């Protein structure tokens, strides 16, 4: 009989990799070795939906003889405050120090969600300031629905020098000085991923000049960005100013040279000339492009082919001004493309006549084309090249498409089936004889 205690830690690690979160606690009770390997995973990510869960977790940390805080790398904290104030939760938590419980090696990945029933804004900023001072290794920070102000963002940039990802969603007390707060905190050269969604009425009241200054700041001071996601429910000149700022910086080199993903939501007022000029200024290595709720036409799709040869993922959701013919041009001329989202674009099932190569592989719901996956795209590119060559496909032709791995394997599998079927038919003389007899009858 093999004793579990003699198993190498690497083997135990492989075992617990297949255990769900609910059973991880049970694994810590098997023996000391399992506890040593499993316990860090148990505390890797904490989901704390309310203040009661937070208090219970911190009490466990304080009561434990081990430094559990060193294992915590992600916290999703929803502060639905009822019995505790913000300061009690962050500083005391029912007369216990949360920062002492988490220790100096506090989590590297933190998400904090706060509810609208918090009204003590200065206390929130103070709490965030104290929290960021305890998080020097913080790399990813997302705030959703918080009443924090620019002071909290500045503190985050000052104390978290390893910060790489910042997500700010629906925080009504953040002003249009948000980017300046990050710059003042020294974080503009650190942040690589920026996600921003805001429906604040103060943003809606900004003038076009304010928008221009705001977007110019983002473009000129955040040169290390690899992912930008902006969804602003505000007048269209906000994104127009972003596009104009990118275009105006073109003479000074490529804007965001490391950018691989750009998401712009609510592109209602971005026309073809503006978008085409912006696409021409983006790095050639851009892989993911999202332009939703747009009014642009097939001309912009043609510009994607011309200026962004490395596109893998394109999201055109709710853009009814594009046609199936334009989508066809985008797909068959983008060698690396693996997915196109067409939800809400109004391309009905009859439009597949303009996408003949996709055939049944185009995902259709309620008579509308929803998306084209890598298999549909592969078929479109394959048959388009076959039509252009007016002949059969060679291995070199197929390799030229730079197919996604899944599509390539499926193509090779079907080629194998077709080849074997043809060989069997050629050698089955008996069947041919039967056919001749039937024709004679």
Automatic annotation (TrEMBL):
| Annotated segments matching region Disordered | 420-441
PROSITE patterns in alphabetical order? FBOX (PS50181)
Q: Name one GO cellular component term.
A: SCF ubiquitin ligase complex
Acidic residues: compositionally biased ranges: 423-441
What residues does the F-box domain cover? 1-46
Q: Name one GO biological process term.
A: SCF-dependent proteasomal ubiquitin-dependent protein catabolic process
Q: What is this protein called?
A: F-box domain-containing protein
Protein source organism: Absidia repens
């Amino acid at each position: 009989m093999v004793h579990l205690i003699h198993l190498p830690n690497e083997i135990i690690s492989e075992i617990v990799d297949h255990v769900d979160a609910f059973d991880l606690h049970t694994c810590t009770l098997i023996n000391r070795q399992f506890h040593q390997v499993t316990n860090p995973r148990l505390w890797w990510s904490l989901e704390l939906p309310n203040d009661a869960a937070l208090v219970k977790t911190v009490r466990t940390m304080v009561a434990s003889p081990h430094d559990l805080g060193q294992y915590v790398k992600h916290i999703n904290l929803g502060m639905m405050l009822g019995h505790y104030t913000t300061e009690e939760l962050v500083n005391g938590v029912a007369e216990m120090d949360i920062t002492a419980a988490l220790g100096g090696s506090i989590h590297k990945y933190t998400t904090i969600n706060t509810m609208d029933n918090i009204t003590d804004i200065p206390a929130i900023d103070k709490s965030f300031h104290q929290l960021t001072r305890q998080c020097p290794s913080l790399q990813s920070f997302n705030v959703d629905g918080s009443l924090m102000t620019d002071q909290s963002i500045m503190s985050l940039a000052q104390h978290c020098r390893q910060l790489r990802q910042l997500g700010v969603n629906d925080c009504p007390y953040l002003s249009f000085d948000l980017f300046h707060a990050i710059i003042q905190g020294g974080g503009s050269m650190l942040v690589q991923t920026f996600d921003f969604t805001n429906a604040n009425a103060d943003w809606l009241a900004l003038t076009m000049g304010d928008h221009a200054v705001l977007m110019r700041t983002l473009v000129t001071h955040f040169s290390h960005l690899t992912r930008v996601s902006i969804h602003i429910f505000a007048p269209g000149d906000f994104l127009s100013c972003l596009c104009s700022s990118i275009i105006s910086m073109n003479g000074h080199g490529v804007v965001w040279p490391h950018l691989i993903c750009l998401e712009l939501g609510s592109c209602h007022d971005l026309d073809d000339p503006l978008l085409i000029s912006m696409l021409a200024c983006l790095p050639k290595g851009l892989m993911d492009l999202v332009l939703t709720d747009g009014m642009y036409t097939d001309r912009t799709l043609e510009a994607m082919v011309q200026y962004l040869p490395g596109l893998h993922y394109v999201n055109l959701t709710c853009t009814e001004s594009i046609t199936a013919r334009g989508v066809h041009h985008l797909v068959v001329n983008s060698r690396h493309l693996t997915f196109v989202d067409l939800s809400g674009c109004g391309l009905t099932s009859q439009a597949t006549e303009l996408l003949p190569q996709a055939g049944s592989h185009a995902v259709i719901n309620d008579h509308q084309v929803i998306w084209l996956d890598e298999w549909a795209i592969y078929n479109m590119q394959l048959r388009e090249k076959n039509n252009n060559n007016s002949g059969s496909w060679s291995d070199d032709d197929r390799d030229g498409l730079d197919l996604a791995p899944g599509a390539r394997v499926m193509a090779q599998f079907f080629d194998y089936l077709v080849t074997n079927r043809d060989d069997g038919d050629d050698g089955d003389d008996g069947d041919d004889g039967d056919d001749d007899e039937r024709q004679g009858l």
